[in-house]
Amino acid sequence: MGWRTTADRLITAMPNLSVLAIFGSSFLVGLSGTVSPGPLLAFNIQETMRRGFMAGPYVATGHAMLELLVVAALALGLGQVIDSDPVIATVGVLGGLFLLWMGWRMLRDPTRGAPWLTDPRHDTNRQSVTGPIVGGILVSLSNPFWTVWWITVGAAFITRSLELGFLGIGAFYLGHILADYFWYSLVSIVLASGRRLMTYNIYRGLMLTSGAFLTLMGVYFVFTGAKLLA
User: Are 228 and 96 in contact (CB under 8 A)?
Assistant: First the structure.
């Protein structure tokens, strides 16, 4: 598998790193993955349109909570257990089905949950933060690319970070999640700053586009996962 080859190369090619170097490289590698279009970005856009600029930090928080568990598990050696085609394929099928469900909901009712479009008195800051945080966890879990990245490239970085003990792991985790917070917060701020110009048709089109993207991603993950299982 190409991901495994990449991970092996990273382990052998990375020089002896300081805590600061681990932090910086983790931030840059994390940012390169975060800025790529994916299900979590689509979910972040959806939540921003409904809740305002704070949706980005909330979504990133859910994502970071999940990744804290992943980093701890990989540091304890779980990556060697789950790095197999059947596990990756199963994650692909189940994750794809979840994305299909999300996409279907958005396509069925693209303006659902956006009362500010019709009621200017609605205060998005009073909405519960549970939705975007839990969504950040579930959408991350539903993305097979996220799983594969962690058990290959992520595991490679953790292997080298462990050479510096808890400081190394802490620097890796902090750099990685700061990349997520930076990007998703930036996207939310940009979108929310222009929300006063957001008309019903523009919002509806944005949600339909996000829903279609999630649906296509879901179909792709289910198909590739089923093919790998077969």
Answer: no
Neighbour-count burial of 31, counting CB atoms closer than 10 A to its CB (0-12 exposed, 13-18 middle, 19+ buried):
middle
Q: Which residues contact 15 (CB under 8 A, 6 or more apart)?
A: none
Distance CA 156, CA 6 (A): 9
Using H for helix, E for strand and C for coil, what is the string for the chain?
CHHHHHHHHHHHHCCCCCHHHHHHHHHHHHHHHHCCCCHHHHHHHHHHHHHCCCHHHHHHHHHHHHHHHHHHHHHCCCHHHHCCHHHHHHHHHHHHHHHHHHHHHHHHCCCCCCHHHCCCCCCHHHCCCHHHHHHHHHHHHHCHHHHHHHHHHHHHHHHHHHHHHHHHHHHHHHHHHHHHHHHHHHHHHHHHHCHHHCCHHHHHHHHHHHHHHHHHHHHHHHHHHHHHHC
**Tokens representing residue 66 in the block:** 């999940």
pTM: 0.71
Residue 68 and residue 90: Cα distance in Å, rounded?
Answer: 22
CA distance 214 to 38: 8
Tokens 């200017």, residue located = 120
What tens digit of pLDDT does each residue of 124-180 get?
Answer: 445 677 889 999 999 998 888 888 778 767 777 787 788 788 899 999 999 999 999
Measured CA to CA, the distance from residue 75 to residue 162 in angstroms comes to 7
Unique residue bearing structure tokens 């990685």: 176
Length of the chain equals 230
